[in-house]
Design brief:
alpha+beta, 3 helices, YaeB-like fold, 5 strands, five-stranded mixed β-sheet
């Protein structure tokens, strides 16, 4: 998949291993780099595992339409499909097989 970043500050941080580790610490930094590498390796969102360690899951409530993968507990890497419009199935759900580009919006503990 193609991975974009929501803003230049996040892009600057996530484009540098040194900045990732400085911002998120060595353990989280390593996991963040691993998750970004994994996301880039998949062709579409349906291929991202829903089981640990990545555990892709769609969020609900005010974060509906946003997905997350686990980093190091309790942090998650949050992202959305970068398509406009977002590809949908007949039932209104997001068509994960057609999502080939994502935008990383945050790395946070949303619990």
């Amino acid at each position: 998949m193609i991975v974009y970043f929501k803003n230049t500050r996040l892009a600057k941080t996530l484009d540098s291993q040194k900045e990732i580790v400085r911002t998120y610490g060595p353990e989280n930094g390593k996991k963040i780099m691993q998750r970004l590498q994994e996301l880039r390796a998949f062709e579409n969102l349906s291929q991202v595992p829903t089981t640990p360690p990545a555990r892709r899951h769609e969020l609900t409530g005010n974060k509906k339409g946003t997905f997350a993968v686990d980093v190091k507990q309790p942090f998650r890497l949050l992202f959305k499909p970068a398509h406009d419009p977002v590809p949908l199935k007949d039932d209104g759900g997001i068509d994960l097989e057609k999502v080939t580009e994502i935008v990383v919006t945050d790395i946070t503990d949303y619990h």
